Amino acid sequence: VLKNLSPQDLAGKTVLLTAGATQEPWDAVRYWTNPSSGLMGACLALAAYLRGAKVHVVSGPQIPWLPNAIQHSKVKTAKEMYELVLDQADAFDIGIFTAAVADFSPLPFGGEKFKKDKAVSTPENSSALTIEFKANPDILATIGKQKKNGQLLVGFAAESSNLEFAVKSKLERKNCDLLVGNLINQENSGFKSENNSVFMQDRFGKSESLNNLPKTELAWRILNWLVAL
Ligand code: CTP
Ligand code: CA
């Protein structure tokens, strides 16, 4: 019923969407992650599906419910997400990258559980633990570099300051058509919240701020913008 009530302005389009937080394992029980709920991605996936698109979501382990009509591949690590998305690089018209991807992963400790008496002591701190991290590939930047004619890319940015600057620079750096940014330290916005306040800008320099809207509504408006592009 909802689909019948929605404009079918994405009919015939394939959307590839990343969502949620990646999990980077360290030892047998611990991993490195972030508080992304995957809600913004799930709202966008659902909105795109209702508007007629074929939707494929590649998400971290935790993300809200999605209808069966949406293809859903779950991964754990940034590297797994990178590989799955790269496999699909030629198979979508619109790429929406909402995932909170770990920029770095801890070098694995191994299959055992780390015991606290193994922590490395330093003269300054007798109970310090040092863990090394390695950089992960940037999924959106890689897809941006090989963007095909007719493909549209939407990036996201969660920032603690300088939002407009970050949105403009990430838009260019990742060769996106639209970049949507939000501040993580605002009330009623960002991680875990059902609402969000965003600043977005497209590749033609047009920008807009939207304040304290439900993520469902924001998803609809972001797709309106994409349809116009
Ligand atoms: N992104 C990605 N792969 C990564 C890191 C980020 O696909 N390894 C995507 C995110 O899904 C988002 C955009 O790139 O759409 C911006 O992510 P963000 O973390 O804000 O930017 P970074 O380039 O990682 O820069 P920084 O975290 O230092 O601000
Ligand atoms: Ca990052």
Low-confidence parts: none
User: What's the N-to-C terminus distance?
Assistant: 27 Å
Bound molecules: cytidine-5'-triphosphate, calcium ion
Strand-pairing-aware structural class:
alpha/beta
* General shape: globular
Family: In the N-terminal section; belongs to the HFCD (homo-oligomeric flavin containing Cys decarboxylase) superfamily. In the C-terminal section; belongs to the PPC synthetase family.
EC number: 4.1.1.36, 6.3.2.5
Pathway: Cofactor biosynthesis; coenzyme A biosynthesis; CoA from (R)-pantothenate: step 3/5; Cofactor biosynthesis; coenzyme A biosynthesis; CoA from (R)-pantothenate: step 2/5
GO cellular component, one term: phosphopantothenoylcysteine decarboxylase complex
Describe this structure in a few short sentences.
This protein is an alpha/beta fold and about 230 residues long. The chain is built from six helices and twelve strands.
